[in-house]
Amino acid sequence: MLFASGGFKVKLYDIEQQKITNSLENIRKEIKLLEQSGSLKGALSAHQQLSLISGCRDIQEAVEGAMHIQECVPEDLKLKKEIFARLDGLVGDDVVLSSSTSCLLPSRLFTGLAHVQQCIVAHPVNPPYYVPLVELVPHPETAPATVDRTHALMQKIGQAPIRVQKEIEGFALNRLQYAIISEAWRLVQEGVVSPGDLDLVMSHGLGLRYAFLGPLETMHLNAEGMRSYCDRYGEGMKHVLRTFGPVPEFSGATVERVHQAMCAKVPADPEHLAARRQWRDECLRRLIKLKHQVPPQ
């Protein structure tokens, strides 16, 4: 949907025809709803965007004439390596081979490929239509031109790409996310706050600031600049950080406690989860609209 919104012709490839059929139908419904609500991205109409999207079960047909290939198979290293090995034998020197992996390092995915200089991780954030960040993570042998091309393409389709300048486990987003999850889990496990109140800390506290400012600018503004913040709060931060415990196991009684608390709010059946995700997406859509209305500084 994002690539079509930028005017690009898109082919969906899968080994199961039913997956393709279901995807195309879901895309048709979603794009129509977006147009009706005035939230459709890009300058093209829903009809024009839908005409750009097709599906096929032949991988060679799917990549014919492609300038960018975005792999989105499950987070399985063996499967992804098999896909990229096949693609490596099908493409020429003018196509970017990109993975949507959220944490597999490019050196584990792409090493040994003939077209390694054209390979890059372009990790989107769920749901990507409403959350525009894309992490660009090159292989050590990725050509700078590949990074530049992918960065420009992501900007053209309305995303907000960042450059992760060297490989690191979890990239940037998940390292930050997992740090929050880890401490959140400890606070609940140790009985400091309830699961519901823990989520309020983010949704009614930190998250409101972080929707517009990152943690570093937040520090900068919460004092008379960054030096002032570190002088004022540095010792206190180090004291608190030293009290952080080991990595949680994410198992046992705490899992059950958190699961029950979450299910009391959103039952874990497909219908309730889908409805809550739809609500989440609508909230994100409205937030993005607000962010576009706020003049940049």
From TrEMBL:
InterPro entries: 3-OHacyl-CoA_DH, 3-OHacyl-CoA_DH_CS, 3-OHacyl-CoA_DH_NAD-bd, 3HC_DH_C, 6-PGluconate_DH-like_C_sf, 6PGD_dom2, NAD(P)-bd_dom_sf
Keyword Cytoplasm carried by entry: yes
GO molecular function: L-gulonate 3-dehydrogenase activity; NAD+ binding
Chief site of localization: cytoplasm
Subunit structure: Homodimer.
Biological processes, Gene Ontology terms: fatty acid metabolic process
Subcellular location: Cytoplasm
GO cellular component labels: cytoplasm
Site for Important for catalytic activity, residues: H123
UniProt keyword annotations, A-Z: Cytoplasm, NAD, Oxidoreductase, Phosphoprotein
Lineage: Eukaryota, Metazoa, Chordata, Craniata, Vertebrata
Similarity comment text for this entry: Belongs to the 3-hydroxyacyl-CoA dehydrogenase family.
Identification of the protein by name: L-gulonate 3-dehydrogenase
Enzyme Commission number: 1.1.1.45
Domain 3-hydroxyacyl-CoA dehydrogenase C-terminal: 170-254
Domain 3-hydroxyacyl-CoA dehydrogenase NAD binding: 2-167
